[in-house]
Amino acid sequence: MRGLLGAALAAVLSCGPSDAEAMKLKEGRNLDDVVECPALLCADELEFCGEMLFDYGRSPPLCLTTDICARVDCLEPNRRCVLFDGLPVQVRCVKNDD
After folding, report:
1. How many whole angstroms separate alpha carbon 26 and alpha carbon 72?
2. Which domain of life is it from (predicted)?
3. For residue 24, what is the DSSP state?
4. CA neighbor of 13 nearest in space, from 60, 55, 46, 49
């Protein structure tokens, strides 16, 4: 039973984000200054540990700053980048409230 549960959990966690939630880096932008979160903690007090939902899949936990959404575009129109509280924080796209 434990093996079946583990296999089901692995399958769910390996699924990538939907196009509605996914983002891509803006042209000319990069994440060269971003490092992975060791033990879900970041050395700089202005950074938080976050997971980004890219068009190709989820990122590992990364040390991010609150301006991370300025570096990305949502894949689908009429969506915006937001930070969802959690550990790690999730950075994903949601529908605009317009």
Report:
1. 5
2. Bacteria
3. E
4. 60
Give the residue from 78, 67, 77 showing the smallest Cα distance to 31: 67
Q: What mean pLDDT, rounded, does the chain reach?
A: 85
Which residue has 């042209």 as its token pair?
Answer: 27
CA distances from residue 28 to 32, 35, 43, 72 in whole angstroms, order as listed: 12, 19, 27, 10
70 Cβ contact partners less than 8 Å away, ≥ 6 residues apart:
none
Instruction: Identify the pLDDT of residue 12.
Output: 43
Q: Which residues contact 18 (CB under 8 A, 6 or more apart)?
A: none
The answer to whether residues 62 and 36 touch, using CB atoms and an 8 Å cutoff, is yes
* Per-residue pLDDT reduced to its tens digit, 6-37: 443 344 445 667 888 999 999 999 999 999 99
Q: Give the DSSP letter string of 56-75.
A: TEEPPPEEE-TTGGGGEEES
Tell me which amino acid residue 90 is: Q
